[in-house]
What does this fold into?
Amino acid sequence: MIATEQARFLDIAVAKGHLAGETASKAKAILDDPSRRKPLPFALMEQGLLSGDAVDEVLSEMIQRVDSLVAEGDKMVRMDAVTRAIFHYDEALESCPSDERPRWKKVAALLERRRFDDAVAELSQLLEITADRAGALRKRGTVHSRAGRLPDAIADLEASVAIEPGDGRAHLELGLCFHSQREIDRAIACYERAIAAQPDLVEAYNNLAIALIRAKRPEEAVKAWDRALHIDRSRRTILHNVQALLKKMGRPPGKP
It folds into this structure.
């Protein structure tokens, strides 16, 4: 629990009557004690100021409040009231800043409104508390990429794959960044790593084929598109592209 959450815990414990008068004063002193190392609930139990049941009741109320606010935010998203959704997620974060759920959901809502800088700020805060650093770095890198900040995107995505080399999506996003910078060989290497990590990632095959064409390797591009269509034959654009490439190569189009 971070400092603001511990203060919130104390407020709820007092409001529920678990702490009053002298016990409330002692609890406040423990809260403000800079030498305290244990989270406030455990420190209060250790001092005999709160029972285990009382601690559970207060924590349960804190969790229920966050759950309720997140659910209300999700409802607003479904109604396309994204600004109102962000308000509810902010309330949830104010109540429990270390809970990752509302922050992830707020990021998604901000991206709906193309508020890239705000999304990056939220992801930077998330990186301070999340156990999924690779996922948060991948997401922040993707946002930087959408905002056109390719050097920042590449830095985050390279950090992400260094932590989690098996994340095919991160390798794909990194390849797209290099592709945008016309570093085709590096893009191809990233797409190939994405496929090795996630063999059913159609977008990796598709972008690999596009990069291979730019590298003047059409035969390999046909094979990449062929593999994409074996995974998902409904991709009409890929089918059109491979047929056009075969025609340009002087080969019967047919079906890959």
